[in-house]
Amino acid sequence: MAAARRRTDQSDGSLDIDALSPEQLAENLRRWAVEEMRFRPQGRYVNAPLPTADDFKTTRHKLLHKQSSNTSSKGDRSTREKLEAEHTQVNREMVELRSKIMNMHKEIKQLEVDILRTEQAYSDIFEEISSLNQKSALLSAYSQQCRNIGAAYQELTNQIQGRVDVYQDIQRFQVLIGVFITSTRKASQEPTYYEVQHHIDQPIVSNLLSGTSGRSTPLGLESACTRAVRETCDAIKAYLKQVYEEEFYDDIEQSKPIKDPKSKDQLWTEVEMILAQHPPWKILSSLIVTSQDTANELRDLTSRINLKRDAEELKFLYEKGGKLTDKSTPPTLFQSVHQLIEEEQALHFQRFLAAEKAMNEAWKGRSKLKSLNHEMENRLSSRYRGMPGSNDLARALYQCELEVAASQASLEYLHRAASRLTQALRERKSALETVRSKHRQIQDFEKLAQSKQSVIQALVKQNSIAQEKLEQLKLEKNGATKFSPYSVIILCKVSPLTKTPPIIFSDQRVPVDELSIYRLDRVRDRPGGAGVSALLDKLAFPLYKAPEELLPKAIEVTQDIEDTAALVQRKQRDLNEVGGATADRAVNHLNSLRNEVTHQDRVALDQLLPRVNESLAKATRALSDCINTKDSANSW
Questions:
Q1: CA 159 to the chain's CA centroid
Q2: N or C: which end of the chain has fewer CB within 10 A?
Q3: Could you list the residue range(s) of the whole structural domain that residue 391 is in?
Q4: DSSP state at residue 523
Q5: Is residue 379 part of a domain?
Q6: SS3 227
Q7: What residues are paired with 326 via a beta bridge?
Q8: DSSP state of 525
Q9: Is 230's pLDDT higher than 60?
Q10: Does position 191 have pLDDT exceeding 80, yes or no?
């Protein structure tokens, strides 16, 4: 502001700022900002002139006129009163509906409280019923166990009494036999087995045996019914064993010849004949005796199982011919059968108790649910008397809640059953894999034993011809010692080749004419070239080699021929001395030596040829450089 005033003073020295009005001062400031400071204002009313007092007066007059023109009312009063009456009626109905809704909410809350109390009482009663059912099931199981123990004690008492009777009969029989034998034998003779059997067959002894405590059969014998039942049970056991073995070998994909026992029709025929020929009480007693004997045999069989002892007693016997025989006692197939039977019996008893308990709980729950449904229907009927819609709605809600609870319980039970079955399936699969792995291990062990047996047989066979092989090795060793001096000759033939690369790569001066690679290429066209070409073909002399090496090559071949002839003569003499078989072996040895020498020459040539080619390339480049140098010198 001060700067603007100073500029105003500078621009117009005669202007008095204090004497200016606010409007003039504002106008001067706007002109200074626009003209001197180059300020361009932006907006809707920027360039509009400022309102004056007259403008305010005109605006106020217009507002007053507008307000005074809207004071009159021209509406229909009857319509307004009608609408107000309808509005009042609607408000009154709304208040009534709100009061009814509040009352309904209160009743619903009261019903919810009653339902919660009923559910709590139902849960308490259900827990009491469950505890009573559990106690009753345990009590019934305990009573059944006590009855079983009492029956077992009674059976044991009967067995002991029978054993006592048998022992008394045996004592009487022994006393009678002793008296009878003492009265009949001579002083210098002893009773033999046949004499004792003869005395047993006497009528008095048979009468004694037949009159023991009212038994229908003699002591130590079995009746016809018992024998028939036992034979039929053995036949059924053989049939079931065959079925089991067929299923087992089908599972492991193997075949085993199984004896053909009696068929199912024959077994049924025998059973029907036994039922027709003997009374039921005899058949039952025979089955009891057979079952007891079988149980005793099974108990004795399982008690003799000892895996540690079987593993320690595992041994083989080595026989002639490389055959291994298993001398250990074969393991029994009924390992831990008694334990498995007891475990399955315990599991079956537990499942039976659980099933009975579940059935009792289900029956109690259904009866309790029926009574609860009847009680809820009575309460709903008494609560919503005169309101059929509310009663139906409450019943539908209650039924929906029951269905939801039942569905949730069914879903939980299905989940538990699915998890239990999955676990059982996993366990059965693991058990099956274990059995299969053990079977594979057994097969692998059998294969290993067979392979070892074959190896042992091969070793025995090799040992049987070891003497012949030893003699052959001695003959070969003698031949090698005889031909060892010729190894020096072979080394002498090969050693010049090892000295060739140093000669080629030496720093000696070589004439340019000897560096040509075409000296032997067109030897046929030259005079006397046919003989030289034939000589080159006979000696297998390469054309890329220098001609100076032809004479040493010919001399070397001549020496080789002479040495070979001398060697053949000496070898022929040795062959005549040793024999025809040794001669063949010597020839084979010479062929192998020749092959080795040929291979060594080929290797040396393969190593030498690239270097010779490289040397020829260097010579060619040097010759071209010399020619270029000569041309340059001639041109200069």
A1: 54
A2: C
A3: 386-477
A4: T
A5: no
A6: helix
A7: 316
A8: T
A9: yes
A10: no
Percent of the chain with pLDDT over 70: 65
CA 296 from centroid of its chain's CA atoms: 43
Q: Which residues contact 458 (CB under 8 A, 6 or more apart)?
A: 322
pLDDT > 60? residue 259: no
| Start-to-end Cα distance in the chain | 101
Q: What is the DSSP string of 268-314?
A: HHHHHHHHHHS-HHHHHHHHHHHHHHHHHHHHHHHHT--HHHHHHT-
Mean pLDDT of the region 26-46: 77
d(CA 365, CA 377): 18
CA distance 236 to 230: 10
The model's confidence at residue 16, banded by pLDDT at 50, 70 and 90, is low
Q: Decide if 93 contacts 324 (C-beta within 8 A).
A: no
Which residues, in sequence order, are CB contacts of 208 under 8 Å at separation 6+?
169, 172, 173, 176
- Cα distance between residue 221 and residue 218, in whole Å: 6
In this structure, how many other beta carbons lie within 10 angstroms of the beta carbon of residue 203?
7
DSSP string computed for 534-602: HHHHHHT--TTS-GGGHHHHHHHHHHHHHHHHHHHHHHHHHHHHH-HHHHHHHHHHHHHHHHHHHHHHH
Q: What 3-state class would DSSP assign to 317?
A: strand
Is residue 177 within 8 Å of 145, Cβ to Cβ? no
- The per-residue pLDDT for range 55-96, each reduced to its tens digit, is 777 776 667 666 555 555 555 677 888 888 888 888 888 888
Better pLDDT: 32 or 44: 32
488 in a domain, yes or no?
A: no
Percent of the chain past pLDDT 90, that is, above it, reads 0
**Residue reference for tokens 């059968």:** 337
Helix (H) or strand (E) holding 193: helix 193-200
Q: What's the structural domain count of the chain?
A: 1
Residue 369 inside a domain? The answer is: no
Contact of 290 with 227, CB cutoff 8 Å = no
593 class by beta-carbon count within 10 Å (0-12 exposed, 13-18 middle, 19+ buried): middle
**Is residue 500 in some structural domain?**
no
Please tell me the distance from the alpha carbon of residue 219 to that of residue 171, in angstroms, as a whole number. 13
CA distance 425 to 523: 94
Q: What is the pLDDT of residue 485?
A: 56
